[in-house]
Amino acid sequence: MQHHTLRPLLGQILSKNNNDQQTLAKTYASSISMVVPRRLLVLITLLLAAFTTIVHADDDAQSANIATVTSESMTDGSDTLRTNNEQSLTTPTQPTKVVSGDAIQQFVAGDFSQRQAMLSAWPGSVESLDNLVELIANDELYQGNRGQTYLLNAEDQLFTYPDKTETSDWPSDLSQVTLTNTLRSALIFGQAKVKLESDKPAQRLQAVEILADNIDQVDPAIITAAAANEDNANVQKALTALQARIDFKNGDLPTQIEAVNLLADSDNPQVLVDLESALASDNLDPTLEAALSDARDSVARRIEISTWTGHIFTGMSTASILLLAALGLAITFGLLGVINMAHGELIMIGAYTTYVVQNLFQAYLPDMVGWYLLAAVPAAFLVSAVIGMIIERIVIRPLYGRELETLLATFGVSLILMQLVRMIFGAQNVEVSNVAWLSGAYQVSSSLVLPYNRIAIIVFTVIVVALLVYLLNKTRFGLFIRAVTQNRQMARAVGIPSARIDMMAFGLGSGLAGMAGCALAQVGNVGPDLGQTYIIDTFLVVVVGGVGQVWGAVLAALGLGVSGTVLEIGIGAVLAKIVLLVLVILFIQKRPQGLFALKGRFVE
Question: pLDDT of 102-118, one tens digit each?
Fold first, then answer.
């Protein structure tokens, strides 16, 4: 080894961390021992050891300095922290200029002070700040050895930022971007500041919620200034409630009583906690204690109303799913008199069709993957309808009039379909992601949040029921279905092809089951046993509503869905199922034809 080759070797040592420097020093010393004179080797080894010791000591000093700063920031009094946060909310702080790129890239490349300044006065958009918070919360944001920004997912796939292209060229020193307590405090109030200045009321409302979660560190002047410039009623109400909470904590007795009277109109669970904590205090003024007691009862009552409203909404969404699953069975059972035990597997096929469509969009239309659900709905209908017509043609048609044999045959078909799905997709559940426009929830109040995907299922069910009623009552095909259902022999006598109507009606019912599976994929797990979860409840809906009756199925689904949800809250899921089944049996004993009796051949 020549002397001029020592410079690159030293360069490699300098580019490594402390442990790697010592290891490389020993390795290179061993490598050159064969060609370098012993005295020179001893000198080189001593120099390398001294250099790594100095670097290590310098790093330890820097680490100690950082630890001291962090410790001091964590032990600061609340007044100092509040002062810093008030300045971040009122006085824009210009961040130190860093590398080019968007705000997230600048944040990753910056040092501690630069990151703190950026969080206090975020230079980017509100969406970019929310994206930063999400990436850090999910442990996905990383920094390269030259300040580059990378994203690392749970499958250990590394992506460049912002183009999000997967790369196999991993940096030699990849470090995760995290937040210290000081940076988290700056982030909280930085988010509030950015969102308070937004033009969107929803984001301003989020800012108020952020401040409400950190009420002990908020300057009341900020709330007063924001309320003076606010023109949205919901945000104004939230600011008023936040100001009342601050006044209750920090004001004199008249101010506290006035604040408590304002808080009595709230349904925020945190307000209830504050009121109950205040009532537990000793030596309360009688007037204040009476106001606190009245406010606590009012807030508790409002929270209870919101809670039960949420339960009823959940029951309605469950009823919508049951109705989607039962509509197809109501048609096939009413038309053919066949107990189709494979109906649950047709629901499962619709869910797996949704999964396949999602994967196709991800592979071939990645820019439109957020709209895959619009293609999955008709695809699920068509695939399930075709499979249903094949089942009717091959399995059910030769067994007409032999009800027990059709029940056993369709049960066998259900086992075959489940095994086929296990062979193709595996026995484990598959992941069907929610589309972006159905993610999140609509916040009605502080204690009532309605998920967008369940709202969409209710709306979707209403649309499907309306289209089905129109199809059955206003079209020629619907007329034929009703004729065959009421009197098959007379329908044949007037020229209606009953065999073809049977097949098409069975396909329609199977397609409706497929759409139910598509909806279920948005709110639950998708696996080979998906249909078994809903098949019993589906039969209960059909029997209670009346065989072949659409409106009976609607009322039965609403009753079973809402009552089942309410019973689960009080006595648990298992006992609720038992009680519900007993109630259904008693109802059938009293009214065997269901809510609506079918006119025609079944009456006889």
Answer: 888 888 888 888 888 88
The SS3 call for residue 180 is: coil
CA 56 to each of CA 6, 7, 26, 392: distance values in angstroms, whole numbers, following the listed order: 21, 21, 16, 78
N-terminal to C-terminal alpha carbon distance within the chain: 105
Q: Would you state the pLDDT for residue 63?
A: 41
Fill in the amino acid letter for 351.
A
Spatial separation of the C-alpha atoms in residues 72 and 28, rounded to whole Å: 42
What percent of the chain is helix, strand and coil (3-state, nearest 5)? 75, 5, 25
* Confidence band of 101 (pLDDT split at 50, 70, 90): low
The span from the CA of 491 to the CA of 482, in Å, is 9
HEC letters along 380-446: HHHHHHHHHHHHHHHHHHHHCCCHHHHHHHHHHHHHHHHHHHHHHHCCCCECCCCCHHHCCEEEEEC
328-339 pLDDT tens trace: 888 877 667 777
Q: Which residues pair with 150 in a beta bridge?
A: 142, 160
Q: Give whole-number Cα distances, 481 to 331, 390, 488, 555, 604, in Å.
A: 9, 19, 10, 22, 19
Helix, strand or coil, per DSSP, at residue 17: coil
Half-sphere exposure of 542 (CA within 13 A, CB side): 26
Identity of the residue numbered 62: Q
Q: Dihedral sign for Cα 354, 358, 364, 365, please.
A: positive
Residue matched to tokens 């971007």: 177
Distances (CA, A) of 111 to 20, 143, 212, 511, 512: 24, 12, 30, 58, 58
176, containing H or E segment:
strand 175-176
DSSP characters over 96-147:
PP--SS-HHHHHHHS-HHHHHHHHHS--S-HHHHHHHHHHHHTT-EEE-TTS
Q: Quick one: what percent of the chain has pLDDT higher than 90?
A: 9
Instruction: Identify the H or E element spanning 366.
Output: none
Q: Can you tell me which residue has the tokens 């064969």?
A: 34
> How many CB atoms are located within 10 Å of the residue 185 CB?
23
Q: What CA–CA distance (Å, rounded) separates 311 from 570? A: 12
Q: State the Cα–Cα distance between residues 72 and 69, nearest whole angstrom.
A: 5
Please tell me the distance from the alpha carbon of residue 505 to that of residue 600, in angstroms, as a whole number. 18
Is 33's pLDDT higher than 60? Answer: no
